[in-house]
Amino acid sequence: MISEYLRSLEGIEVFGVAGLILSILLFIVVVIWAIRADRAYIRTMERLPLDTSNATVEHSEKVYS
Amino acid sequence: MEIERFSYDNRIVRNFTIATVVWGVVGMFVGLLIATQLISPILNLATQYVTYGRIRPLHTNAVIFAFVGNAMFMGVYYSLQRLCKARMFSDLLSRIHFWGWQMIIVAAAVTLPLGITTSKEYAELEWLIDIAIALVWVVFAINMFGTIIKRRERHMYVAIWFYIATVVTVAVLHIVNSFEIPVTLFKSYPLFAGVQDALVQWWYAHNAVAFFLTTPYLGLMYYFLPKAANRPVYSYRLSIVHFWTLIFIYIWAGPHHLLYTALPDWAQSLGTVFSIMLLAPSWGGMINGLLTLRGAWDKVREDVVLKFLVVAVTAYGMSTFEGPMLSLKNVNAIAHYTDWIISHVHIGALGWNGFLTFGILYWLVPRLWNTTLYSKKLAAAHFWMGLLGIVFYASAMYWSGITQSLMWKQFTSLGILQYPNFLETVLQIKPMFHIRAAGGAIYLSGVILMAYNLVRTAKRGTFAPEEAAEAPPLQGEISHGKENRHRWIEKRPVQFALLAVVVIAIGGLVEIIPTYVVKSNIPTIASVKPYTPLELQGRDLYIREGCNSCHSQMVRPFRSETERYGEYSKAGEFVYDHPFLWGSKRTGPDLHRVGGKYPNLWHYIHMNEPASMSPGSIMPSYPWLLTQDLDIAATGSKIQTMQALGVPYPKGYETRAVEDLQAQAEAISLDLTKAGAPAEPQKEIIALIAYLQRLGTDIRVRE
After folding, report:
1. Which of A12, B307, B364, B558 has its CA 20 to 30 A from that of B703?
2. Which residues from chain B sit within 8 angstroms of residue A34, using beta carbons?
3. B510, A18: Cβ pair inside 8 Å?
4. B471: part of which helix (H) or strand (E)?
């Protein structure tokens, strides 16, 4: 009602559909990345903020594993 | 392997810590002041420099850019050094960043009360300050990427990804939304007008929420929550998905701020769909944060830091659930322009940003000063005061928002508005304003308690500006054979940043380009003409006084609105509006169709003392408009700037503009004098009346 003049724009709906497809693709790709990431790598990464001197890592591994 | 010795720069972290607390108190105090002004207009203190319209932007800017901004830098400077096992790239850049940012805040605190503003929400600062912001941001970016590049830790932890996304996206947003042409040192007009300006502005403002209030804080959450709980994040895999989907989807959702406006329908729908999708990554992040504490909830009972962090993450979850719901058109129709939105943003600001900041402060300050917290009891008291403050604040505003909206829309059985006088709906919700102010006061008292606690903590300890650390340097690339692609990218900060830019640019471009390209498709309504010089000057006074803080200029196509205000607003009516002034909140009524509704005399008396025309009105008085002379020096250059922006004034009009201005002013002055209010033509009030009487009249059929 408010913007009928823009509805007549050719192919404007392509933008919306393209956006949806793009985001679904991105989601799938990212999920595959995340799942395929190997366990050792994930383990290193998630411990980065904690004290990462070897002694502490071993210690916290004992505590949390 | 050789071990390198170095030290972390704690001085810069301390500076940002102090700034966070100081500006937090200031920003929240201004918030409390404007909350009380809505209860009693006397608290506008009869001076133009602290009227509601001018200092509401001061409150939002102070809380967002001064309090949250400094807190973000505090957290980034602390965590980035440790995650990279490297000192900040350059101490000099750190200092320039710190002092530059504080200067910008001071500049904002001076210019906004003076009425120097662009009127665009969360981007009110004028062009000179915009340039300063861009420069300081570049300094921050260089310092951050420099640190990441010289890091001793091969992998970039997920917090750093959020920091990178923040730095690059805020830069893009700030620059695009600041396309403006200076008129004088303290005045500029934006490149875009009307619908385009609105779209760019809300693309900016929405993503300022995303990339200034959310992504950096998610980075802080991913660092400080595991730190405080001393256990790794619940799922690192989830954080990868969280990051990429969040930054991709967020950008698209901006148009949900413009539902039912004159914005093209397809853009509105796009905003709605992506807002709903946004729920997934947001809640992914919240769940990741909360589940980090699985099996450790007993710690939450004892540790005040964890208490704050848990409430912060929960508030994030509530706020990001509410956001998508508010993006549904049927919900938005009720909530928009009301206090509901005020409640929504304060769940985010007080709960998510506030509590996360407080949690980090209670964790960080004892560590920076090598001591323990002065008083756990005071901290616990602060926690409960904060929580109570939020509950008071939010429940009052939800109640008030829904009440007022229902009253706006209520028809009698005869089909006429039950509450045709807008003021009735304001007086109905005034008790809620009291509760809101009380909630704010409790929250602020908690913060002051925290400030005291932190100062005492610092006093009992000793600050160590340098914290020694050691780590082996990064060796050359070690191949692990087949490498996961994400591991490839997260080792390369520059490529990572570029990829992040690409991801956020897609949404922004899809949103903005079509609307810009179809500029010619917005039907120029033949009767819509540029503002006369006097009206243009009046419009700038409207901007200076921040009228758009409380009054919208956008009649939505609802019967309840067309009955109350008149014909709904059309996109073509705003083509000469640099900037657009649609507003986002109706503390007072919409003004788009106010032109010709009242005689000049009504406006004259009303601006001098609103309560004299509308008993009980909470609008501030503007007596200075009646006594101050209009500054017409810049009239010519204003016209020239408008011409440069494509507004079709005749060639050479800038030289005749002042004559026209004076003629129109004489006419209004004469009319007022006849009506019994002798007003000199050179006063500001004349220009403002000219503008108000013009508003929304272009498409009126003249008899």
Report:
1. B558
2. 237-238, 240-241, 486
3. yes
4. strand B466-471
CB neighbours of B380 closer than 8 A, spacing ≥ 6?
B304, B307
Q: What is the pLDDT of residue B143?
A: 97
Question: B514 vs A41: CB contact, 8 Å cut-off?
Answer: no
- Chain B residues with CB under 8 Å of A61 CB are none
Chain A residues touching B226 at Cβ < 8 A: 46, 49-50
Structural domains of chain A, count: 1
How far A16 CA sits from the closest chain B CA (Å)?
Answer: 6
Long-range contact pairs involving B613-617 (C-beta distance under 8 Å, separation at least 24): B614/B423, B616/B423, B616/B426, B616/B427, B617/B41, B617/B423, B617/B426
Instruction: Return the pLDDT at B519.
Output: 53
User: In chain A, what residues touch B296 (CB-CB under 8 Å)?
Assistant: none
Rg (CA), chain A: 23
Q: Is A48 part of the contact surface with chain B (CB cutoff 8 Å)?
A: yes
Give the model confidence (pLDDT) of B158-167 as tens digits. Answer: 999 999 999 9
pLDDT digits (tens, 9 = 90+) for B94-144: 999 999 999 999 999 999 999 999 999 999 999 999 999 999 999 999 999
Q: Does A10 touch chain B (CB under 8 A)?
A: no
Q: Is B146 exposed, middle or buried (0-12, 13-18, 19+ CB in 10 A)?
A: middle
* Prediction ipTM score: 0.76
Q: Which domain holds residue A13?
A: 2-64
Record: contact B158-A26, CB cut-off 8 A: no
Distances (CA, A) of B567 to A2, B556, B665, B701: 12, 9, 28, 11
Say if the Cβ atoms of A6 and B153 lie within 8 Å. no
Three-class secondary structure assignment of B243-298: HHHHHHHHHHHHHHHHCCCCCCHHHHHHHHHHHHHHHHHHHHHHHHHHHCCCCCHH
Q: Which two tokens stand for residue B646?
A: 């494509």
Say how many CB pairs under 8 Å bridge A and B: 120
Helix (H, G, I), strand (E, B) or coil at B645: coil
HSE on the CB side for B582, CA within 13 Å? 30
Please check the confidence at residue A64 and state whether its pLDDT lies above 70: no
Q: What residues in B contact A60, CB-CB < 8 Å?
A: 230-231
**C-beta of residue B439 within 8 angstroms of C-beta of residue B365:** no
Q: What is the residue whose two structure tokens read 């256990």?
A: B231
* pLDDT tens per residue across span B293-326: 988 899 999 999 999 999 999 999 999 999 999 9
